[in-house]
């Protein structure tokens, strides 16, 4: 069987999706010598991937995702390579895809949390974008032979929104990269002091989209009064700039925005923090919390969406809409050294439940089942 994987997100061009595709491909290389793989890449990530085995081949499909160009070029590239089954790791599937495909839907956040605050567009154009997004996901879910998703929570949401049969969707959990990988990837070291961190601190890592609920975290921090710092790690964009506007001049030494940091610095931040706080209203998987556990950092998370499913008893939970509850739980972990130690130990055990190899095995099983159906028909 010849399997195509849309790897235009692979690598640093898109951090979350890029890592998913990268780990999927490298683990498929480890476990499958039987099938042939066509890895479609853009010019900007062409050099980032080099096939390790002869049954993996990379092909240039230099069209940007969500563009009109991909609607034309991707079907032509797929047809030219005579692919039997295509895997799209995101919902941006060409309408005229010429063959059967499976799709990964990571979350339905834009459907679950629609708000004009999540865009720089005018309300009218945002509404148009929302309707287009809804159609594209509907198309992906209904035309796909199989839908993969990353949590039981998201699976239930897909069924609820699109009224499809449960057996069409398979859950294949993501995983977090090991500490050693981060150290080997970028070995440079920078001290926390260079970032302005001089006290015990509470850490958040990720983007600042409205569903992340970071405005509430800043408001909660102001009421904590426990002499710590609050550190946000994420590439500065429109949403982080808007969040920074909330911070008063006399708070800038207490509330720190690091912007983008490399893996070595991020590892130092995870190791140096007192606790990790994840106040999000909605998540598809909640990878940052697992990454924190990977470094022994206690995790405090909202009790919404998938987070309790993914972290189980390795985290403490709060109501993300209840500031008093958040304050209470932060203080509980912050001042209880024994509790932090127990959470750290549970976190190490929890991350072992997830692996990229397991995800690749589950995905390969789906490929084989679809090929079996194709031959029977």
UniProtKB/TrEMBL annotation:
One of its GO terms (molecular function) is glycosyltransferase activity. Residues 16-174 form the Glycosyltransferase subfamily 4-like N-terminal domain. It holds the Pfam family Glyco_transf_4. Residues 194-347 form the Glycosyl transferase family domain. Keywords: Transferase. This is Glycosyl transferase family 1 domain-containing protein. The lineage of its organism: Bacteria, Candidatus Falkowiibacteriota.
């Amino acid at each position: 069987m010849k399997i195509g994987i849309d790897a235009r997100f692979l690598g640093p061009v898109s951090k979350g999706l890029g890592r998913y595709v990268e780990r999927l491909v490298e683990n498929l290389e480890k476990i499958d010598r039987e099938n042939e793989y066509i890895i479609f890449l853009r010019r900007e990530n062409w050099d980032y991937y080099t096939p390790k085995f002869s049954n993996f081949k990379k092909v240039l499909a230099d069209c940007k995702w969500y563009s009109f160009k991909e609607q034309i070029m991707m079907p032509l590239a797929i047809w030219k390579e005579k692919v039997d089954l295509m895997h799209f790791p995101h919902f941006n599937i060409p309408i005229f895809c010429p063959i059967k495909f499976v799709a990964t839907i990571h979350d339905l956040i834009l459907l679950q949390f629609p708000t004009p605050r999540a865009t720089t567009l005018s309300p009218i154009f945002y509404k148009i974008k929302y309707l287009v997004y809804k159609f594209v996901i509907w198309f992906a879910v209904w035309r796909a032979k199989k839908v993969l998703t990353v949590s039981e929570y998201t699976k239930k949401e897909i069924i609820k929104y699109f009224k499809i049969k449960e057996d069409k969707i398979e859950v294949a959990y993501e995983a977090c990269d090991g500490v050693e990988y981060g150290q080997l990837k970028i070995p440079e070291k920078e001290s926390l002091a260079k970032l302005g961190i001089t006290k015990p601190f509470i850490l958040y890592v990720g983007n600042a989209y409205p569903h992340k609920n970071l405005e509430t975290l800043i408001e909660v921090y102001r009421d904590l009064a426990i002499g710590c710092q609050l550190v946000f790690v994420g590439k500065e964009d429109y949403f982080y700039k808007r969040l920074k506007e909330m911070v008063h001049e006399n708070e800038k030494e207490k509330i720190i925005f690091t912007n983008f940091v490399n893996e070595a610095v991020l590892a130092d931040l995870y190791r140096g923090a007192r606790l990790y706080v994840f106040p999000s209203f909605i998540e598809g998987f909640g990878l940052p919390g697992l990454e924190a556990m990977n470094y022994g950092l206690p995790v405090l998370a909202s009790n919404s969406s998938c987070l309790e499913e993914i972290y189980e008893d390795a985290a403490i939970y709060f109501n993300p809409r209840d500031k008093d509850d958040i304050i209470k739980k932060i203080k509980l972990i912050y001042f209880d050294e024994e509790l932090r130690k127990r959470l750290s130990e549970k976190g190490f055990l929890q991350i072992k439940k997830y692996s990229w190899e397991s995800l690749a095995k589950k995905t390969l099983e789906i490929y084989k089942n679809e090929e079996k159906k194709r031959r029977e028909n």
